[in-house]
Write a structure and sequence with these properties.
Largest sheet: 9 strands, antiparallel
Distance between the termini: 37 Å
Helix content: 10-25%
Radius of gyration: 16 Å
Structural class: alpha+beta
Strand content: 25-35%
Number of helices: 4
Number of domains: 1
Order of helices and strands: HHEEEEEEEEEEEHHE
């Protein structure tokens, strides 16, 4: 699946990642359209991540002990996170807004096989937009007590599925607040305000071609690759 198709289907639904940030059900968007500044910024954000196979490789099958990791700290010193052993975090051009006054940084994170597994953006000029309420099936969640928003709201990790029929999307990201008990809430863009530096987006919308059912997703959660992804996303720290 090309980056363009990932971007277009995301914009077509108004949904987000991954983050970090939610994903979007498969859909196509027309060409030659004019996008708003918000859409343009989000398109850049989505281009940080290329699609890859969702299922773990054989070498990542099964749980292992805590893997060795390396610490990635952004050049401004505001953010840091732990990258699993043999994974690679590569700096990429962040979305920019002239005159915003934000300290911007962005990374693409590949697994040991060169498959993109996550994306990070710090100092993003979030637009606060979200789609209409959608039912989400939460497969895993965890509080990140080290992080809170300027308003004092908690930050959580979530791995979930949403969509319908054969168009389920699976996404792992950090998000503001716990997921509602009924699983119904707006399709957020995973925009987490941290400090006075705009919003942070950290997560992964994984290629739904690799896992198409909830049972397959739950089986993937038993692999070392899932452990590594969750450990990395929940390791985020803000030093502002």
């Amino acid at each position: 699946m090309s980056v363009a198709s990932v971007v277009s289907r995301t914009l077509a639904t108004g949904a987000a990642a991954a983050l970090v940030a939610g994903g979007a059900t498969a859909a196509s968007a027309g060409t030659g359209t004019t996008t708003s500044p918000s859409e343009n910024s989000y398109q850049i954000y989505r281009q940080v991540q290329h699609s890859g196979q969702f299922a773990a490789s054989n070498s990542d099958a099964g749980h292992t002990g805590s893997p060795r990791s390396t610490t990635v700290t952004t050049p401004d010193g505001l953010y840091s996170f732990q990258v699993p052993h043999a994974w690679q975090a590569s700096a990429v051009p962040p979305p920019t807004l002239p005159g915003s006054g934000l300290s911007e940084s962005a990374y693409r994170i590949d697994n040991a096989h060169g498959q993109v597994r996550a994306h990070f953006i710090g100092g993003f000029y979030g637009d606060g937009a979200s789609g209409p309420p959608v039912h989400h099936t939460v497969l895993d969640t965890a509080a990140l007590p080290e992080l809170t928003t300027p308003a004092g709201n908690p930050v959580h990790y979530v791995f979930e599925a949403y969509g319908g029929g054969d168009r389920l999307t699976f996404a792992a990201r950090i998000e503001v607040g716990p997921v509602p008990d009924d699983g119904t809430y707006p399709t957020s863009k995973g925009q987490v305000p941290l400090g006075e530096n705009g919003v942070t987006m950290f997560g992964s919308t994984l290629n739904p071609a690799g896992v198409s059912t909830l049972s397959e997703a739950r089986a993937w959660m038993e692999t070392a690759e899932y452990d590594k992804l969750k450990s990395m996303l929940t390791s985020l720290r803000f030093h502002g």
